[in-house]
Design goal:
elongated, single chain, 3-stranded antiparallel β-sheet
């Protein structure tokens, strides 16, 4: 006799695959044939999963089309079925799934768009933290500047891509006529709206949760570099050295002021206790 765990695993496998052959004999008909009973569970499971995935990745769905999205959502669900009672997390592997599926193709940018949309979801549920009060920087002695470690707010993400992902994301928001996305050298004559070209240059997008919305904005490469150094916990002297090496023409102070003004930084750690806004 199969154990309860074995029965549950067989049932879940049948629901995901849609193949009732192995478990049909274990399902009581009670007026409804076993395959039909299993199909009800299969349909409900797929519908809930796919609708949640579509709500999480609306731009990817719009780019690929509803039929395409449903087809690949089923494949994604088979490979990465939800293991949580909270559907919020069904998309945590979706960007990786698209990367593996479309690497080297004209659709490989879908992965980066998905990373942006998943970052949006992460920012929505991240822990809250007040932004740094700039005045608190005045409490730091000049000799301690080099060792300062800036701490980022949890509800902030940076997504970088070789593609213009901010332009793609913005052009595919609700209410915007689909402009299309074109690969380098491929024309789209007769398009009603301007298209976004994949060779338009890289994109660097900051997502910042505000009190009642998530701000999505593009930032320059210099700001992204400083953000990345802070996210790795680099002391200010190290972050400044990397910044100067990578961006010889940019001003470190401008990048730091932008991060502070955008309320990306929560506080800092130095030889003094951690400082945060009360």
């Amino acid at each position: 006799m199969n154990s309860l765990r074995e029965l549950q695993k067989a049932f879940c496998g049948a629901v995901l695959s849609g193949d009732a052959a192995e478990v049909a004999a274990l399902i009581s008909s009670d007026g409804i044939p076993a395959p039909q009973r299993l199909q009800i569970y299969t349909n409900n499971t797929q519908a809930a999963f796919q609708s949640t995935l579509a709500a999480t990745f609306p731009v990817v769905e719009r780019l690929g089309g509803a039929d395409w999205f449903r087809q690949w959502a089923r494949e994604y669900q088979r490979r990465f079925p939800s293991r949580s009672g909270d559907l919020q997390f069904v998309g945590d592997r979706y960007a990786d799934f698209l990367r593996d599926r479309f690497a080297g193709t004209e659709y490989q940018y879908f992965c980066d768009v998905a990373r942006l949309e998943w970052a949006y979801q992460e920012v929505l549920i991240a822990a809250d933290a007040a932004a740094l009060d700039p005045a608190s920087l005045g409490t730091v002695a000049e000799e301690d500047y080099a060792g300062m470690v800036f701490l980022l707010r949890p509800a902030v993400r940076l997504i970088e891509s070789v593609y213009p992902i901010f332009a793609i994301w913005k052009a595919n928001q609700p209410g915007v006529a689909t402009p299309g996305v074109v690969t380098p050298g491929v024309a789209t004559p007769g398009a009603a709206e301007p298209v976004v070209s994949l060779d338009a240059g890289p994109g660097r997008v900051l997502l910042i949760r505000r009190s009642d919305f998530v701000e999505v904005r593009e930032v320059p490469a210099s700001t992204a570099t400083l953000f990345n150094q802070f996210s790795r916990g680099a002391p200010f002297a190290t972050a400044a050295a990397v910044f100067t090496e990578v961006h010889a023409e940019a001003e470190l102070g401008d990048a730091l002021r932008q991060l502070i003004s955008l309320e990306v930084i929560a506080g800092f750690r130095s030889n003094q206790p951690e400082v945060k806004q009360s």
